[in-house]
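Q: Convert this sequence to C-alpha cells.
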Amino acid sequence: MKKRMSEGLWGYFFILPQMVGLILFALIPLVSAFILSFMKWDGFGEKQFIGLGNFTSQFHNPDFKLALFNTAWYTALVVPVGIFLAVLVAVALNKVRGKVIYRLFFYMPVVTSSIAVSIVWLWLLNSEFGIINVYLKQWFGIIGPDWLTNRQLVIPSIAMMSIWWGLGGNMVLFLAGLQGISASYYEAAQIDGASKFRQFWHITLPLLSPTTFFATIMSIIGSFQVFDQSFIMTGGGPAKASYTIVYHVYQLAFVEFTFGKSAAAAVILFAIILTLTLIQMHMSKRWVHYGG
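A:
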C-alpha cells in the first residue's frame, strides 16, 4: 500500500512542471479572457460589466464578418490542399532510399520562424522583382500578377505560403501512418490482381483515415488562428482583403485598446473552433477506420 502511494506521489511530482505550465499559461488566461469578454475595459481604468454587449457588437461589426469570411476562405484553401499534398509526398517517400534525408528537408520549414518564412515569401511574391514573377516571365513569357496587392489573389497567395510551410509536418504524420500499415494487406491485394491505384484507394487511404482525421483537425485549428503571415506580409491589406479573425483580435486589443471586445472576438473564435472539432469528431465515426 505504501509503495503504491509512493509511486503515485512520484508520478504527481514528475507531471507537476507540466501541470503548472498548463494552469499558468493556458487555463488561467482562458478563464480570464472569458470573464473579460463581458467587460468594458481600455487596459487602464476600471472594468465595467456590460453583459453580452461585446458579443453583440462583434456580430454587428462589418470588420468581424469580413475577418470571418477571409479566415474561412483561407482555411478552405489550406486544409484540403495541404492534406492532399502531404499524402502524395508521404506515399512517394515511403519506400524511397534515403527518405530520412528527404524527410529532413521537407520538415525544415516547419521548425523555421514564421517571421523568417513570411519575409522570405514576401520577397518571392514581390510583383516587381520577386523570383516567382521573374521565372514566370523568363520561362513562360507570362507577366506575373500582383500576388499580395490584388484583393482576389492575396488570400490564395498567403495560403500557398502556408501550405509549403506546413507540408513537412503533415507529411511526417502520414509517413508514420503508412509505416503502421501491415504489408499483408498489399500482398493479399496483389494476389487478387489489384492495381497500384486500387491498393492506394481501398487499402492505403482507409487505413490512413485516423492520421487524416488528426491532421485535418490540427490543420483547421491552425488555419483559423492565422495571423503572422497576414501581419508581416500584407498588414491585413489590401483593403482588409487578408484581415483575419486573430488579426481582428489584435487590432481591437493593441491598436484600439478595447480589450473587452477583443476578448469577445477571441471567445467567438474559440467557440467556432470547438464546434468544428466536435462536428468532425461526430462525423469521424462514418469514415475513420482503425485497423492494423
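Strands lie at 39-40, 48-49.
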